[in-house]
Amino acid sequence: MNFRSFYLSVLLGLAAILTGCSSDGVPRIFTNEYGAVTDAGYKLPSVPVDKIPSKYHRQVVSYKTDEKPGTIIVDTKEKFLYLVMEGGKAMRYGIGVGRQGFEWSGTARVAMKREWPTWTPPAEMIKRQPELAKWRGGMPPGLSNPLGARALYLFNKNGDTGYRLHGTPEWHSIGKAMSSGCIRLLNQDIIDLYDRVKVGAKVIVQ
């Protein structure tokens, strides 16, 4: 292979990665889908993906599991959320998880889905951060709302777990343990996940 052919093959390979295209079944990465988005009248800014490790960019990966398609599996150690797909694949998203003392694990289900949700800080959070008391009745939706553009509400046999899968404007928290227990995704990713997940979907946090 001469240099020109090699250079062309490299460019084509990079284009395939950036557009999420792949013809041979290898992982597809959607790095080009983190641009500015207007959604329900809100203008989400672009995400500086060059500052986020590429492993945390949304991508289709090979994934072996006995769980059925549509199941969400959260790997809190590796900071990945997997949405199980057909054919031994999964859509993988980078996430932020609970900081030390706020970790949790277990099985739940998506009981509700909300676009641009209201955020109501729990009483124990207000006790730790009294300045949040002003939002006791709920913080309106918006770009600064901690739940971001979407939220999936997790319930188990005992009812509302209090935990959510939600968006965040804090892109720098992806891949880290910084939250109060909820699983956070980039706003562009939670919009994508929201559209793929059905109410009632099984969620495994491990």
Automatic annotation (TrEMBL):
GO terms for molecular function: acyltransferase activity. This is L,D-transpeptidase. CDD domains: YkuD_like. The active site is at H166 (proton donor/acceptor), C182 (nucleophile). Its EC number is 2.3.2.-. Residues 70-206 form the L,D-TPase catalytic domain. Pathway: Cell wall biogenesis; peptidoglycan biosynthesis. Keywords: Acyltransferase, Cell shape, Cell wall biogenesis/degradation, Glycosyltransferase, Hydrolase, Peptidoglycan synthesis, Signal, Transferase. It comes from Chelativorans composti. The keyword Signal applies. It is an enzyme of class 2 (transferase). Residues 1-23 form the signal peptide. InterPro entries: LD-transpeptidase, LD_TPept_cat_dom, Transpep_catalytic_dom. The keyword Signal applies. Belongs to the YkuD family.
